[in-house]
Amino acid sequence: xxxxxxxxxxxxxxxxxxxxxxxxxxxxxxxxxxxxxxxxxxxxxxxxxxxxxxxxxxxxxxxxxxxxxxxxxxxxxxxxxxxxxxxxxxxxxxxxxxxxxxxxxxxxxxxxxxxxxxxxxxxxxxxxxxxxxxxxxxxxxxxxxxxxxxxxxxxxxxxxxxxxxxxxxxxxxxxxxxxxxxxxxxxxxxxxxxxxxxxxxxxxxxxxxxxxxxxxxxxxxxxxxxxxxxxxxxxxxxxxxxxxxxxxxxxxxxxxxxxxxxxxxxxxxxxxxxxxxxxxxxxxxxxxxxxxxxxxxxxxxxxxxxxxxxxxxxxxxxxxxxxxxxxxxxxxxxx
Length: 335
Prior knowledge:
Blueprint: E1 13-16, H1 24-35, E2 41-45, E3 56-59, E4 73-77, H2 94-109, E5 115-117, H3 123-130, H4 137-145, E6 151-156, E7 159-163, H5 173-176, H6 179-197, E8 203-207, H7 222-236, E9 240-245, H8 253-256, E10 261-264, H9 267-277, E11 283-287, E12 293-296, H10 313-329
Parallel strand pairs: 1-2, 1-5, 2-4, 3-4, 5-12, 7-10, 8-9, 8-10
Antiparallel strand pairs: 6-7, 6-11, 11-12
Helix pairs in contact: 2-3
Organism: Pacificibacter marinus
Pathway: Cofactor biosynthesis; pyridoxine 5'-phosphate biosynthesis; pyridoxine 5'-phosphate from D-erythrose 4-phosphate: step 4/5
Subcellular location: Cytoplasm
């Protein structure tokens, strides 16, 4: 996931502030310092929410990112209602967090940014403070992008995983995990691996819903009843699909070499292996959008906010991946 050197003709990445009382603001400062201009990005948020005494430079246009000295965070100011106290979320700032996400999406879609990278949000705070109607970032971005279905992928150098169902209770998974949803997920995943990673014929592993992939019907019937027929239909159309595979044996190092991405039935089936393999370096990527979006694969970490100990590894990986994806898939835009 090493980023390529920036081109002055390519718009920078828009980094949203996320929850102002979480670790997002301090991670933005750390990333700017550690990356030393290797990836051009600017932060959208209220400068009052940045750690006191840290260096930043206000800009009024994303293109001015390239004029900011190396190691200094460029800030596109977005005024919030209230200041932020690390670790103490303020409901009055909830709408500002939502507006920053929408602003970043608009900048990418208008060509003023090459991609957007989102700092973590506190979904309960957004719901309580601004009636946020979406389960999370992914669903809100689908709305902003005007698309009916998107796919959440988690990626690190050793593994890419996709949960077919995302932010729902485990008890609801069997009803929501349908042939249509799995087929949509496979098609979107394959298309974006080709578009953004240059993998024109991706090898896709499909995890079974049940333990041991149902074990011939002894532990569940979804694999026999519809998963195998669906995968056979898609294989006949040219998809390189493996499975349904037993979920407990498909993530060890030798098994991972046989596929480019693993599509799982539900959230934890996908996220447990990648967070075990690379807890700090995982990146959340939204596939199926008309723009590029990445995010660090961690939460707001309110318990350590403001202490200066938050690890910027995942944010740096997310910025690197966003830039690499933009470099491969987007044309240069003249300055």
